């Protein structure tokens, strides 16, 4: 029975899909498995996975965070300003950027808790506010004179093709997995997200947990944006698109493909990592197959649709077999 | 006294006061605010934004959300422009085609939501991406320039030199929606499903049919907004719709719509659009940084949901 | 006036859900011009039977007959079409719609695009409101009506559908005494007009007052099938419901007089409107809090827990005056546990594992440095209690939602045992659990009290109250109207409690 469960698990399905698509792209697209492409793939995956983890940490509460892009870019621009505008050494500026992400997350979380409204409408509004303030303060100008350490880090390769950015992301994912499985705070986040009423009456400070989840999301979004800074060698206000909306689909694809329930209370860190990686690989492979950059978005949308349908079928099957 | 308390309980009274106040304040600071030219600009903005808001409002009425309104509007816009430029279709036929595309997109949303039982949020996030991708795939992000003169003229004509002609379709849609939500069974079903889906089902209402109808309606209204924008901008921009998401939620919410469903108001939503337009216009008139418009819009949404919540907490007099 | 020819019959109805046989061959026969009582304890199968009669569920076996003709209801629509109307316990109205529209929504459905003639609708609605003596403007939104009037609107709605069989599920649960009297007058008139009414209630006084026939379910079977009410005593009904004579359940009174007070409330007022609450629970004592729905009992429990603010008076825990600012504080600092009546949304986290659910209150205490906490530690802490309570689960990793109601309730109690609370508040201990588990739970609560825990029980089930409590505090209108010592005699306790709720004092209070 436990073996059946393993083969029916989301994570196993994702690994299978990744293997299948890697084989297809490797055969059909020349250069897909070249060290350079694997390096770029890993570097892109590092950012995309981080974005997915950022969304996942809020989905835990049964809410969502539309402001991920706006928060990430704001935090990265703040770090850029600390370096160029204030002259702070870069490690401090990084810490400042992460703190900015946590602060913006706190604003989201506290507003959600205090108002009692769904995080959808709150983060829709703060997305507009954060991005607007950031653009207003930066005059939409980039910070391009960053210390070389950023672009060096972005270009660095281990063993020929592993980007250190990917290692940072994987380490973060490990920490998150440990948080949810092995710490009281992580468990309480899950309990508060699954059934706030029951969690509160069992002695969990639900409001505090929701705020913490949003802060975590802010920090992870800041990390994703800072990685983009390392990749681009500059902090650019438009790096997540208008209002940071370009991150939105990516942010949901990872967790949803990975089997994180949108109702909250259950997470799969490994699933999110695999899901976001699969998406990155598909993007890269489709581009190399000359599908046309513009159709990739349609493809990702279809994939989200198919993924949720498959997941639903899988759950229905498990429920019927009484395995879940 | 009781007359006033009665008024204060209608949906549109609060937003109307806010609108008048906003207009008075802006007028107080700016002589030119109510000049015919400015009014025309205001009405132009309202004409399109009201449709965007209605497109979301009908979905809010059943307690769902539609992230794909912008993508549907954009796809309809380029269908309209492309059909005229590439296929040389006459404008009325192109309009029908674009409306058909909007209806089909909406039907797809509604059907997927009902058949799969997956939340509207996830489904419309996926279809947003699909519709936008089709848009970009077809246009390769290049605009259609071949808009017939007649369409351009329609987009820029005015009645009596003040009211833009494209305001007329918006007005007709507003009246039709108001009538539907007040008098037609389908409108009442929409509100009933939004208010209590289980009870609606027990009352013999087909929830599936209602949900699909409302999504088709949302798609058609978004398509009209896209078509009007093409006429006004005089080109078929693939980027039409990219910035609709916040606009679409702002006006209904500022007008007091309850996101949980079952309670929306056409007049209040329209007033919400007017408030947003007046304030946006004021920021321009006072030469305040255009970047701050986003901030103000976001802040207004937060303020409005806060106010709605306060209002909901006040006990209804006469009950119990 | 009662016709011999039955309007509706159900024979040999069986219903199985995964893992549970809710109904094991139940019969019921409803005649026109009759008010028929359907009785049974929680979990006896009442609600399942109602759902089958109204077409929500389809029976696994057995036949339904309307006018002697066998029918199958594929859904609620079929049942409605056959003239079976129902007024559910929860309100199914649209608050913003007018009275007339709520009544006639069904008929409007014929066409999606034909404009509604509201004048005509109001006129038609009056025709259904008049027989119910409901003097309201049909154009008025339902949200402006009182709960009692909303219920009458639902009855009007059911009647407008040409219902000949009308099910009323706990219709008096949220009504005052005078509203109940009015409702009964209307029900009698409907009966005299030939309607067949099925009255579901757990208030035996009401059932005996208004019903002429009775069907009792116990454990998914008929304890009696559609027999005449005449000659049936209250004791007979109770015996049929619980399967034994009532006296056997009489509580023994603990001598806790000398024990220290664990929970004390003096002149307590809350933000929810409680006032002058005096209540005291000693170590080793079980105090019952009795009252009707809406009396403010659950709300008081939550205020004690710190979920709602206490605005006046003094709260004492173990003799010390305290101000409890949050539920977490109540649990972790003061050792107060609360078992909710609403297991699904307030008691358990159904999608999480048994282990996780049983361990929540002890997580903080077990955690090591940096908040580290492994499953092993939690298992060691809670397993003895899960075993002691005989929780039946395939594994500790099983989702709590997959267990039966009785096992879920055991987990809800076990988690507080593991947490070692000094004060345990149990809200409706036997909601949705079978009779065997109920008896077991009762023993457990008595043992718990004997072990020194102060227990406060909230229940609307009088036999349960008498079986468990040492003293019974009666609550009505957000205040405590009196405290009576439990003598174990049902008639006496019942009379004294009802006096405290409906007595002359009560009338003066509500006036």
From TrEMBL, chain A:
What positions belong to coiled-coil segments? none
State the source organism's domain of life.
Bacteria
From the broadest rank down, the organism's phylogenetic lineage runs: Bacteria, Pseudomonadati, Pseudomonadota, Alphaproteobacteria, Rhodobacterales
How the protein sits in the membrane?
Answer: Multi-pass membrane protein
Query: Would you tell me the Gene Ontology cellular component terms?
Result: plasma membrane
A Gene Ontology molecular function term of the record: transmembrane transporter activity
Tell me what this protein is called: Ribose transport system permease protein
Query: Which CDD domains does the entry link to?
Result: TM_PBP1_transp_AraH_like
Automatic annotation (TrEMBL), chain B:
Presence of the UniProt keyword Ribosomal protein in the record:
no
Q: Does the keyword Protein biosynthesis apply?
A: no
Question: What Gene Ontology cellular-component terms does the record carry?
Answer: plasma membrane
Q: Which UniProt keywords apply?
A: Cell membrane, Membrane, Transmembrane, Transmembrane helix
A single GO molecular function term of this UniProt record? transmembrane transporter activity
- Membrane topology recorded in Swiss-Prot or TrEMBL: Multi-pass membrane protein
Q: Where in the cell is it found?
A: Cell membrane
| Coiled-coil region list | none
Transmembrane annotation, as ranges: 12-29, 41-62, 69-87, 93-113, 120-138, 158-181, 202-232, 292-310
Protein name in the entry: Monosaccharide ABC transporter membrane protein (CUT2 family)
* Alphabetical list of InterPro entries matching this protein: ABC_transp_permease
Q: Which CDD domains does this entry report, sorted A to Z?
A: TM_PBP1_transp_AraH_like (cd06579)
Top-level taxon in the UniProt lineage: Bacteria
TrEMBL record, chain C:
Q: Where are the transmembrane segments?
A: none
The compartments listed are:
Cell membrane
User: Which domain of life does the protein's organism represent?
Assistant: Bacteria
Q: Which PROSITE patterns match?
A: ABC_TRANSPORTER_1, ABC_TRANSPORTER_2
GO MF annotation: an example: ATP binding
Gene Ontology, cellular component aspect: plasma membrane
* Keyword Translocase found: yes
- What name appears for this protein in its UniProt entry? Ribose transport system ATP-binding protein
């Amino acid at each position: 029975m436990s073996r059946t469960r393993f083969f029916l698990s989301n994570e196993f399905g994702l690994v299978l899909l990744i293997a299948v698509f890697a084989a297809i792209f490797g055969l059909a697209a020349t250069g897909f498995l070249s060290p350079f492409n694997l390096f770029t793939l890993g570097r892109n995956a590092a950012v995309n996975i981080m974005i997915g983890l950022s969304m996942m940490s809020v989905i835990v509460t049964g809410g969502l965070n539309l402001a991920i892009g706006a928060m990430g870019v704001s935090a990265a621009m703040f770090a850029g300003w600390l370096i160029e505008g204030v002259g702070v050494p870069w490690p401090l500026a990084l810490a400042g950027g992460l703190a900015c992400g946590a602060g913006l997350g706190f604003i989201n979380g506290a507003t959600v808790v205090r108002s009692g409204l769904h995080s959808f409408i709150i983060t829709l509004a703060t997305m507009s506010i954060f991005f607007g303030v950031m653009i207003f303060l930066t005059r939409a100008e980039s910070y391009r004179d960053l210390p070389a350490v950023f672009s060096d880090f972005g270009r660095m390769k281990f063993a020929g093709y592993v980007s250190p950015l990917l290692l940072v992301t994987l380490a973060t994912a490990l920490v998150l997995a440990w948080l949810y499985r092995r710490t009281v705070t992580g468990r309480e986040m899950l309990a508060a997200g699954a059934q706030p009423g029951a969690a509160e009456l069992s002695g969990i400070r639900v409001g505090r947990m929701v705020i913490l989840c949003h802060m975590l999301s802010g920090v992870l979004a800041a990390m994703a944006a800072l990685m983009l800074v390392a990749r681009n060698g500059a902090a650019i206000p438009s790096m997540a698109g208008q209002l940071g909306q370009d991150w939105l689909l990516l942010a949901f694809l990872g967790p949803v493909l990975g089997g994180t329930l949108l109702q909250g209370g259950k997470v799969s860190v490994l699933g999110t990592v695999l899901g976001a990686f699969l998406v990155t690989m598909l993007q890269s492979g489709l581009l190399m197959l000359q599908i046309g950059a513009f159709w990739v978005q349609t493809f990702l949308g279809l994939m989200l649709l198919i993924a949720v349908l498959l997941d639903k079928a899988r759950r229905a099957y498990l429920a019927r077999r009484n395995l879940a | 006294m009781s007359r006033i308390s009665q008024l204060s309980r209608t949906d549109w009274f609060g937003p109307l006061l806010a609108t008048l106040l906003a207009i008075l304040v802006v007028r107080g600071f700016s002589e030119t605010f109510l000049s015919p030219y400015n009014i025309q600009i205001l009405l132009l903005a309202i004409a399109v934004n009201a449709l965007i808001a209605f497109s979301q409002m009908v979905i809010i009425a059943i307690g769902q959300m539609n992230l794909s309104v912008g993508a549907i509007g954009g796809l309809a816009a380029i269908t309209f422009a492309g059909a005229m430029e590439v296929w040389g279709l006459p404008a009325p036929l192109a309009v029908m085609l674009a409306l058909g595309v909007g209806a089909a997109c909406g039907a797809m949303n509604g059907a997927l939501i009902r058949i799969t039982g997956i939340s509207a949020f996830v489904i419309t996030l996926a279809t947003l991406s699909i519709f936008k991708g089709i848009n970009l795939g077809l246009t390769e992000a290049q605009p259609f320039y071949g808009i017939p003169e007649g369409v351009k003229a329609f987009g820029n004509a005015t009645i009596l030199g003040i009211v833009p002609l494209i305001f007329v379709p918006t007005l007709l849609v507003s009246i039709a929606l108001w009538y539907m939500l007040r008098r037609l069974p389908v409108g009442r079903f929409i509100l009933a499903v939004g208010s209590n889906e289980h009870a609606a089902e027990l009352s013999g209402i087909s929830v599936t049919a209602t949900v699909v109808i409302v999504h088709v309606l949302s798609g058609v209204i978004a398509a009209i907004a896209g078509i009007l924008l093409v006429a006004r901008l005089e080109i078929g921009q693939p980027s039409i719709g990219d910035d609709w998401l916040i606009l679409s939620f702002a006006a209904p919410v500022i007008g007091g719509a309850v996101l949980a469903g079952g309670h929306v108001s056409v007049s209040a939503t329209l007033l919400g659009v007017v408030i947003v337009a007046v304030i946006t216009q004021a920021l321009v008139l006072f030469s305040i940084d255009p970047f701050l418009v986003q901030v103000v819009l976001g802040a207004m949404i937060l303020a409005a949901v806060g106010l709605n919540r306060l209002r909901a907490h006040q006990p209804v007099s006469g009950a119990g | 006036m009662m016709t011999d020819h039955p309007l509706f019959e159900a024979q040999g109805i069986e219903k199985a859900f995964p893992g549970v046989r809710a109904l094991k061959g139940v019969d019921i026969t409803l005649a026109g011009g009759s008010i028929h009582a359907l009785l049974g304890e929680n979990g006896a199968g009442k609600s399942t039977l109602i759902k089958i009669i109204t077409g929500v569920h389809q029976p696994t076996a057995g036949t339904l007959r309307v006018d002697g003709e066998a029918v199958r209801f594929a859904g609620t629509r079929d049942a409605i079409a056959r003239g079976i109307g129902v007024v559910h316990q929860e309100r199914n109205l649209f608050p913003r719609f007018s009275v007339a529209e709520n009544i006639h929504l069904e008929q409007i459905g014929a066409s999606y695009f034909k404009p509604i003639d509201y004048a005509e609708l109001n006129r038609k609605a009056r025709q259904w409101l008049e027989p119910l003596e409901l003097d309201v403007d049909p154009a008025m939104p339902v949200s402006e009506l009182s709960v009692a009037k909303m219920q009458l609107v639902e009855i009007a709605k059911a009647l407008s559908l040409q219902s000949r069989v009308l099910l009323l599920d706990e219709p008096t649960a949220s009504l005052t005494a005078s509203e109940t009297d009015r409702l009964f007058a209307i029900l009698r008139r409907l009966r005299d007009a030939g309607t067949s009414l099925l009255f579901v209630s757990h208030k035996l006084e009401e059932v005996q007052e208004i019903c002429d026939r009775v069907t009792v379910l116990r454990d998914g079977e008929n304890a009696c099938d559609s027999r005449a009410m005449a000659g049936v005593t209250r004791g007979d009904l109770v015996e049929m419901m619980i399967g034994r004579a009532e006296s056997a359940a009489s509580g023994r009174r603990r001598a806790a007089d000398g024990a220290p007070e664990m929970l004390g409330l003096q002149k307590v007022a809350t933000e929810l409107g409680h006032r002058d609450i005096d209540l005291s629970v000693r170590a080793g004592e079980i105090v019952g809090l009795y009252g009707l729905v809406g009396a403010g009992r659950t709300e008081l429990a939550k205020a004690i827990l710190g979920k709602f603010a206490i605005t006046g008076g003094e709260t004492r825990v173990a003799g010390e005056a305290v101000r409890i600012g949050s539920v977490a504080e109540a649990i972790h600092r003061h050792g107060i546990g609360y078992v909710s009546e609403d297991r699904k949304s307030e008691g358990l986290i159904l999608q999480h594992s048994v282990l996780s659910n049983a361990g929540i209150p002890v997580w903080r205490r077990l955690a090591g440095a940096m908040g580290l906490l492994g499953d092993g530690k939690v298992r060691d802490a809670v397993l003895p209690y899960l075993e002691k309570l005989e929780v039946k689960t395939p594994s500790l990793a099983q989702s709590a939602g997959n267990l039966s109601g009785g096992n879920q309730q055991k987990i809800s109690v076990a988690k507080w045992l593991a947490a070692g609370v000094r004060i345990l508040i149990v809200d409706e201990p036997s909601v949705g659990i079978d009779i065997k588990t109920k008896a077991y739970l009762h023993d457990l609560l008595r043992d718990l009290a004997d072990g020194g825990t102060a227990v406060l029980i909230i229940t609307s089930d009088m036999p349960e109250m008498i079986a468990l409590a040492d003293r019974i505090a009666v609550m009505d209108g957000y205040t405590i109207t009196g405290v009576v010592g439990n003598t174990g005699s049902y008639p006496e306790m019942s009379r004294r409690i009802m006096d405290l709720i409906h007595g002359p004092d009560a009338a003066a209070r509500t006036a």
